[in-house]
Write a structure and sequence with these properties.
This protein has about 800 residues and is an alpha/beta fold. The chain contains 25 helices and 31 strands. Strand 10 and strand 11 form a beta hairpin.
């Protein structure tokens, strides 16, 4: 059961610092002078009364009592900060007010599954990252007592100073530490760290800092009694053992039976519209009830008769019928209305001719964005220099007095945007948290410009929240993306819909590829002419079939290894994580045989693994060595890495202490017990590679590829790309072409519920004023196109 409670210990509460600390430490504190300075009636300083709780500190026959105590402080702190009595004395001496706040206490429950040593390591990791690094001194006391169920109740009291500390002692009070959002950050961080430790030691993650209401659950909270074997992820039980998987599907079956709306909620997490077949696939997958079972038709009928189900206007000739939910339709209807209001408002118009360093096409797009309304889009094909253009736009806005910020779905793209445009950038998830809390500073205000990169990967719900906030405060939003690249992970192709309705500045001159025929192929991929692009690469000998899957992987690694001597940058791409892991093993074997890797060290790391089509985090053992390529798979601000950061291991101890030189030139050092989201970094998924540029790319294509994945995979290179595949999954050239040309464009509910505004219906404006519509050629004539027929939309959970 998750438990983290924060409270302030102050003199107004009738406590001296000594009394509070003595209770938690289970030791004797000479508190006469402390009580005198507190000015409280609780203690008579003249009597020399002592707060003596040593009895509490002694362990009883059951092992209950104070198990551990220590003090953590920032590097360079005075010696007295590490002495309990000295720390208390200084705190009392520093605070003069009779109602002063002395300490902040965090009380957290510790996972019973972990040993005491692991519990201590967990608390240290949490406190060091979230408290000590910010300047707090932390006194940690781990207790154990009998729980209501008869088991153990291990927990920790963490007393934190209200002032930051330095070599000279305490500084000013940090008022921002009192913000309510700070507690929410601690709750979220504690759940993350505790779950990581559980997974790293073979247990399923079970802690969620959110309330049941925040998680959208309508069940009564349950008290934690013992170790669990699974966790609840987005309402779908993710199993770690087959027995629990069976039990989980039984629970899901009950959910479907009692609440058909639950099915619709889960489906619309990843897609805005769906068919009856999608509902049937979901029921089968998550309940194991097949269409031969008599219950199947009954369950399907219950869902399809839900009052929240909304049938959409059918596109001409489109079968089968498509549906959405009333809630999803409301989100996307509001998104449409907000976008229209922003696109009709201009609060951040900048007119400039000073755009040196841009191509004529880039300069035209820049002027359109700078002089445009409060919602503008840049539709740029892969390799057209979008990042360079954004850096120029950000500089012009900054010179004009506008604050510019950046955001992207992934941390690696956000960092790339921030580095290139020299603006503070963050992930969309982080931005939304800041917008919700209005912290750490006002995230957006009037006249600000927010640039969102890779906007095509952002779902309707996320984008709706951002646009609503921008409209409310008077900020401008610049959406940047490519509708043909990888689609949004969450429900809704919002960027595509906005581009169709409001137009976009266009970048179509590809610069990344060095050969003209490759640039033409990239252009063909971008406009959906996949067969033409593939034919061009086939003619150049870029496709390599093998009889088996293992043969295709070995052929890919052989080509990758042969090209290493050229000294060019390389990337290996595949769709599935299991494929990237197998390719990593083969690549390392080649390097090991040449003596290019150091001593092997087995490290427990957190990876995402697939089991029967479901993906969940697991603690596994990976071998690393000096000289290995490493992929970081989770954002960590303190460490300075993002999900997708790559580097080379320069030093590695047997205890798992790493030193890694990142590809951007920085060097980071960390212990795998503190950061464990690591993977061997020779191969990565296509999703992680969007936005990357290398000299040579090696692609393992498979039956799960589609046109969007092919577009990204075949446009990462400057010099050459080679595609490897097996004849078992793709037995004929026709099947290969059909697979790589498969259109899985995500739609939105409003593509069907509302007519698309046609160009002839749009109001015209005087020359020289750039709006969100196509005027004088400054905007691509994208608005007014009919929505594409979606030929193959899946649940994102496999066929």
């Amino acid at each position: 059961m998750f438990h983290l409670r924060a409270k302030v210990i102050g003199r107004s509460g009738g406590r001296s610092a000594g009394g509070a600390v003595a209770y938690r430490a289970g030791s004797t504190i000479a508190a006469a002078s402390i009580a005198y300075r507190a000015g409280e009636s609780l203690t008579d300083p003249a009597s020399g009364r002592v707060f003596d709780y040593r009895a509490k500190g002694r362990l009883d026959a059951n092992g209950y009592g104070v198990l551990h105590k220590e003090i953590m402080a920032p590097e360079g702190s005075p010696a007295w900060a590490y002495d309990l009595q000295g720390l208390v004395n200084k705190v009392e001496a520093t605070e003069k007010r009779k109602d002063a706040q002395l300490f902040r206490e965090l009380e957290v429950s510790l996972p019973r599954e972990l040993s005491l040593e692991d519990q201590k390591a967990l608390v240290r990791a949490f406190v060091e990252r979230t408290c000590v690094r910010e300047g707090m001194v932390a006194a940690i006391f781990i207790h154990n007592e009998r729980a209501s169920d008869g088991g153990d109740n291990p927990h920790a009291h963490v007393l934190l100073t209200m002032r930051s500390i330095g070599p000279e002692g305490f500084g000013a009070k940090r008022r921002e530490w009192n913000a309510a959002a700070r507690v929410q950050d601690w709750r979220e961080a504690w759940a993350q760290y505790a779950n990581e430790f559980l997974l790293a030691h073979g247990h399923a993650p079970r802690l969620d800092h959110r309330s049941h209401q925040e998680r959208g659950l309508d069940v009564e909270p349950d008290n934690y009694i013992g170790p669990t074997k699974g966790r609840n992820f987005d309402g779908v039980v993710v199993a770690h053992r087959q027995a629990e998987r069976t039990a989980g599907k039984a629970r899901n079956l009950q959910k479907v039976s009692l609440d058909p709306q639950w099915v619709l909620d889960q489906i619309t997490r990843t897609q805005s519209t769906f068919t009856e077949r999608d509902v049937a696939k979901f029921i089968h997958r998550y309940t194991a009830v097949t269409n031969q079972d008599g219950r199947f038709a009954e369950l399907l009928a219950k869902v399809m008769q839900s009052p929240d189900l909304q049938k959409l206007a059918e596109a001409e000739g489109q079968k089968p019928a498509r549906f959405t939910t009333r809630a999803m339709l409301a989100v996307e209807t509001d998104l449409k209305a907000t976008a229209e209001r922003l696109a009709g408002r201009a609060t951040s118009v900048v007119l400039t001719e000073d755009l040196a360093g841009l191509t004529p096409e880039q300069a035209k797009a820049a002027k359109a964005i700078l002089s445009g309304r409060d919602l503008v889009a840049l539709h740029g094909l892969a390799g057209t220099g979008k990042t360079h253009l954004l850096a120029e736009i950000a500089e012009v806005y900054a010179k004009a007095g506008h604050r510019v910020r950046g955001a992207a779905l992934s941390g690696i793209v956000a960092r790339s945007l921030g580095d290139a445009a020299h603006v503070p950038s963050q992930t969309i998830a982080s931005l939304l948290r800041d917008l919700e809390r209005e912290r750490p500073f006002q995230p957006l205000s009037r006249g600000d410009v927010l640039i969102i990169d890779e906007a095509g990967m952002i779902g309707s719900r996320q984008l709706a929240k951002v646009l609503e906030h921008a409209e409310r405060v008077g900020a401008k939003v610049v959406l940047v993306g490519d509708t043909q690249q990888l689609q949004a992970i969450e429900a809704g192709g919002a960027f595509r819909t906005i581009v169709k309705r409001h137009g976009a500045a266009e970048l179509s001159t590809i610069q990344r590829q060095r050969h003209g025929w490759q640039r033409q192929a990239s252009s063909d991929l971008a406009r959906g002419a996949v067969p033409e692009a593939l034919a061009a690469y086939r003619a150049q000998g870029s496709f390599h079939p093998s009889p088996t899957s293992s043969g295709a992987m070995e052929a890919l690694i052989d080509r990758w290894h042969a090209d290493r001597s050229a000294g060019q940058s390389q990337v290996i791409l595949a769709h599935r994580r299991t494929e990237t892991q197998a390719l990593n093993r083969l690549a390392r074997a080649k390097l090991r045989a040449e003596g290019l890797l150091g001593r092997e060290v087995d490290v427990t790391v957190m990876v995402m693994e697939e089991e029967n089509g479901e993906v969940s985090p697991r603690a596994v053992t990976r071998s690393f060595a000096t000289g290995d390529r490493m992929l970081f798979t989770r954002n960590d601000k303190a460490l300075g890495v993002q999900n997708g950061s790559l580097g080379t291991i320069t030093s590695l101890t047997r205890q798992g202490a790493f030193r890694v030189r990142l590809d951007d030139g920085r060097e980071v050092a960390f212990d795998s017990t503190r950061y464990s989201y690591l993977e061997q970094g020779y191969a990565m998924t296509v999703h992680k590679a969007q936005g990357a540029t290398v000299d040579r790319a090696y692609v393992l294509a498979g039956e799960m590829f589609d046109a969007h994945m092919a577009y990204v995979a075949l446009t990462r290179h400057r010099e050459r790309v080679d595609v490897f595949y097996n004849r078992t999954d793709l037995p004929t050239d026709a099947k290969l072409m059909r697979t790589l040309a498969r259109d899985r464009t995500k739609d939105t509910s409003i593509d069907y519920a509302f007519p698309i505004v046609m160009e002839a219906d749009l109001p015209r404006v005087p020359p020289g004023v750039v709006t969100s519509g196509p005027i004088n050629g400054d905007w691509a004539l994208l608005r007014g196109q009919e929505p594409s027929i979606v030929r193959d939309i899946g649940l994102g959970i496999g066929e």
